[in-house]
Design a protein that fits this description.
Chain A: Belongs to the binding-protein-dependent transport system permease family. Chain A: The chain crosses the membrane at residues 12-34, 103-123, 135-161, 181-200, 239-265, 285-310. Chain A: This is ABC transporter permease. Chain A: Keywords: Cell membrane, Membrane, Transmembrane, Transmembrane helix, Transport. The complex is a heterodimer. Chain A is an all-alpha fold. Chain A has a domain at 96-280: MetI-like fold, CATH 1.10.3720. Chain A has helices spanning 3-33, 38-43, 49-59, 65-77, 91-126, 131-145, 148-162, 178-211, 215-222, 227-235, 240-256, 259-264, 270-279, 283-310, 313-316. Chain A is globular and about 85 Å long. In chain B, a hairpin with a 2-residue loop joins strand 19 (488-493) and strand 20.
Chain lengths: 319, 539
């Protein structure tokens, strides 16, 4: 590791933090623009104007927006995500349990989906335009074209109702062992795998096919290497950067975009938590979750950048 | 017959071509060629592009680019490899037959160290342990004159120079101790001064290891230095085969004679006049992202209707000078004057008349033309832009210009893809000429062309110069071209002019060290030139 690479990475980290700050402003401004008033919605339509005014003062809503922004930001920097308006509970406490569940599901889905997608991509290149390629491309494309709820219910119908292998409701709680938890999330994980597989597989395939046009692939062929060795050893290392980018986008989706799957399998994740509180106009919760989602997106994309930098021999070993 | 390594009998190679807008056509690339190569000998395959030399050269590896079909017999070590399974071919490649590509910079995988790539096949075919293979690789690095052979292998391809990569590629081919190596234009992409060292290293390695070789090139002077026998090819047919001495000294066929005696131009240089059309005074320039000056205090003059050749290797700054003169890169010091008027440094500050009088022709005619435009649009664009010609008048002028460049009216509706390399360059010349310029900057305009085609282009340029009184700033790395066309010469090296003056003065002794080296490195069409040049090199 040399100073040049470290400098590039430090640059990316700094940019990421700056971006996160900008996003926090956007989230705050966005939630201010939402129609309706929290106090009004808590008290209901029949509340007297005096009662609404009192509640507003109590919640600090009479302060100017910038003061509330810095108040909010200061709290977050100290690890305080604020208090939910709807039930007066600490957001941090309710959120961390949810976030843990979401990360648990995302992690195990990724453990299955990412290697599978890359392997299928490699196989598709190996048998390009022949039946394995067609089968892989066709099935993954079908899977991505079907809506998540359809795949979810289809899996429930087959594996929960017909064969009774897995539960249809993925309840997890702190008393469960790892094995029990994995059993519980099998179906949502499978659904998510089918949803993200095609995207990563196709990118792997396209990126490697692009590299396969390079003269050094001809060199490898003339060295008498087998096709799979050429793909895995000579083509794939040069296709990592685009593949990593797509993998990271999909990982981000696994964390921030799984609300439909959570609803189908009644899984206690962050998505459901967010939707519940949007309908209650609980602005602090929406802000907190929004900021966490943004942090996940920025963090993962930054990681993709850093991996691309570290795997590039031209940057790692300058002249 | 016991020591026959390679025996190609009646090899025919065909492919399906897909011309734009027409039905697919069957074309024959190689038409029933036979050849034999004894163990430990070197056979040169020579011809112009489209002669089929690379296609024949790759056949002993059982390899065909882009879906071509081989028929006939290719016997390597007593087996007809065209009958072998893909698995048998993999056993052959990298073990009995190895390959050295033209551009080693592109042929090495950027993701792995050189050592990993050099010993890969040796390990794969189980010919040695990793330790033995690495020791052998280091030995080969030493033999090929690579710097710091012990540690050379731990570097990545982008960390070493082009000439070193070409040698590393030769080491890669030699490492599994094959019987046959295919050298596919291994020195064509290198500067002359680098070429001579690589050529010597390759020749030395072939001699010490006793490996057989097919040496593919378009440069007869180069192949004469390394080959025992030479096979001359033209458009897929065998023209003539014989010993190197016989081909060079007494070629039988007219085509071979033309190849040997190429550069038929006899140009008498003109003396410079007092008022130059272009004057470069003490110009320095740098690309903004690096502080180093790419050009350092350059001065030279060019008289109207004459040719000033800028000679230098890659990195000498000759193309940067062209960018400064055309206004693409403002100089940070010095002044360029055109017709005794100072030229503004940037393109935006120049008026249309100056732009018109200063035109440019590029090395790669392919990418210098819009592939979706017809020849009429390409040549007609400057006519409309500078002279407002439209419709019939414009078409008539385009036809005139096409006659000037010896193509004629029949080409007017063609697209660039329907032209050969030489024809494309002619269209680019016509486009430059359409603006009626006073000065044309020619940037390596013949470098990508075959010698005979290049010869035609140079003759055309000379004729047009006499006719239109246009001056050329002729940028090239090829000294033979310089001799053929220049009135004055500037030799550039690392951003400086090391020698400048009238042609005959520059090319006559006493020389400075660099010009001496440059001149001595140009391959000459005679046997034993390499050895001679190397002794004067070291002397």
């Amino acid at each position: 590791m040399n100073t040049f690479v470290l400098k590039l990475i430090a640059q990316r980290l700094a940019l990421g933090l700056l971006l996160l700050l900008a996003v926090s402003v956007l989230i705050f401004v966005g939630t201010q623009l939402l129609p309706g008033d929290v106090a009004q919605s808590i008290l209901g339509q029949s509340a007297t104007p005096e009662a609404v005014e009192n509640l507003r003062r109590e919640l600090g809503l009479d302060q100017p927006a910038w003061a509330r922004y810095f108040d909010w930001l200061g709290g977050i920097l100290q690890g305080d995500l604020g208090t939910a308006l709807s039930n007066r509970q600490d957001i941090g406490q309710s959120l961390w349990g949810r976030a843990g569940n979401t990360l648990f599901l995302a992690f195990w889905t990724a453990v299955v989906a990412v290697p599978l997608a890359i392997l299928l991509g490699l196989v598709a290149v190996r048998y390009q335009s022949r039946w394995p390629d067609r089968v892989i491309s066709g099935t993954t494309l079908t899977a991505i074209s079907l809506p998540e709820f359809f795949i979810g219910y289809l899996l429930i119908y087959v594996f929960a109702v017909k064969f009774s292998w897995f539960p249809s409701v993925s309840t997890v709680h702190s008393g469960m062992s790892l094995g029990e938890r994995l059993h519980a999330i099998a179906l949502p994980a499978a659904t998510l795998t089918l949803v993200i597989l095609a995207h990563m597989m196709r990118m792997t395939r396209a990126a490697i096919l692009n590299v396969m046009q390079s003269p050094y692939i001809e060199t490898a062929e003339l060295k008498g290497l087998g096709t799979f060795r050429i793909i895995a050893r000579h083509a794939f290392p040069n296709a990592i950067a685009p593949v990593v980018n797509v993998v990271m986008l999909n990982l981000a989706f696994l964390i921030v975009g799984v609300v439909v799957v959570e609803v189908i399998f009644v899984y206690p994740g962050m998505g459901q938590y967010l939707i519940d509180h949007v309908s209650k106009r609980d602005v602090p919760v929406v802000q907190a979750v929004g900021l966490i989602f943004a942090a996940v997106y920025i963090g993962l994309n930054m990681l993709a950048d850093i991996i691309a930098i570290v795997t590039n021999p031209r940057l790692r070993h300058p002249k | 017959m016991a020591d026959t390594l390679l025996d190609i009998r009646n090899l025919t190679i065909e492919a399906t071509a897909y011309p734009p807008g027409e039905a697919p056509q069957e074309i024959t690339i190689v038409n029933g060629v036979s050849l034999t190569l004894e163990r430990g000998k070197v056979l040169g395959l020579i011809g112009e592009s489209g002669a089929g030399k690379s296609t024949i050269g790759l056949s002993p590896a059982g390899y065909g680019r882009g879906g071509i079909r081989l028929s006939g017999e290719v016997w390597v070590n007593g087996r007809d490899i065209l009958q072998g399974s893909p698995k048998a071919l993999r056993q052959l490649r990298g073990k009995e037959v190895c390959y050295v590509a033209q551009s080693a910079a592109a042929a090495f995988n950027p993701a792995h160290t050189l050592m990993e790539q050099v010993i890969e096949t040796t390990l794969l075919h189980g010919l040695a342990t990793r330790k033995e293979a690495e020791a052998r690789a280091v030995e080969l690095f030493k033999q090929l004159g690579l710097p710091d052979p012990e540690n050379f292998g731990s570097r990545y391809p982008h960390q070493v120079s082009g000439g070193q990569l070409q040698r590393a590629m030769t080491a890669m081919a030699l490492c599994p101790e094959p019987d046959l190596i295919i050298f596919d234009e291994p020195t064509t992409a290198l500067d002359v001064t680098t070429q001579i060292d690589v050529l010597a290293a390759i020749k030395h390695a072939i001699k010490t290891t006793g490996v057989g070789a097919l040496y593919i090139t378009h440069d007869l002077a180069v192949v004469a230095q390394v080959a025992d026998d030479i096979l001359v090819l033209r458009q897929g047919d065998k023209v003539e085969m014989g010993s190197a001495a016989q081909i060079i000294e007494s070629p039988q066929e007219p085509y071979t004679q033309a190849l040997v005696s190429v550069r038929s131009i006899d140009h008498t240089p003109k003396a410079p006049t007092d008022t130059p059309i272009l004057s470069v005074e003490n110009v320095s320039a740098a690309y903004s992202n690096s502080g180093n000056n790419v050009l350092d205090g350059i001065s030279m003059d060019l008289s109207a209707g004459q040719t000033l050749a800028i000679v230098g290797e890659s990195g000498s700054g000759k193309s940067t000078l062209a960018r400064v003169i055309t206004g693409l890169l403002p100089p940070n010091k010095g002044q360029v004057s055109f017709q005794s008027q100072p030229l503004p440094g940037t393109l935006g500050a120049r008026n249309k008349e100056t732009l018109r009088e200063l035109q440019m022709i590029y090395q790669m005619a392919d990418v210098a033309m819009n592939p979706r435009h017809t020849v009429e649009t390409i040549i007609g664009r400057p006519l409309t832009f500078y002279f407002g010609l439209k419709g019939k008048a414009r078409r008539a002028r385009v036809i005139e210009l096409l006659d000037e460049i010896e193509l004629g009216e029949g080409f007017i509706d063609r697209y660039p893809a329907e032209l050969s390399g030489g024809q494309k360059q002619r269209v680019c010349i016509a486009r430059a000429l359409a603006a009626k310029p006073k000065l044309i900057i020619c940037d390596e305009v013949t470098s990508a062309l075959d010698p005979l085609v290049a010869d035609g282009i140079l003759k055309l340029l000379l004729r047009l110069q006499a006719q239109e009184n246009v001056a050329y700033l002729f940028i090239t790395h090829d000294l033979a071209t310089v001799k053929a066309i220049a009135d004055s010469i500037a030799v550039m090296h690392r951003g400086k002019v090391v020698r400048y003056g009238e042609r005959d003065n520059v090319l006559s002794p006493p020389f400075d060290d660099y010009t001496q080296k440059l001149l001595a490195s140009v391959p000459q069409m005679k046997l034993g030139w390499l050895e001679e040049a190397l002794t004067t090199h070291t002397a």
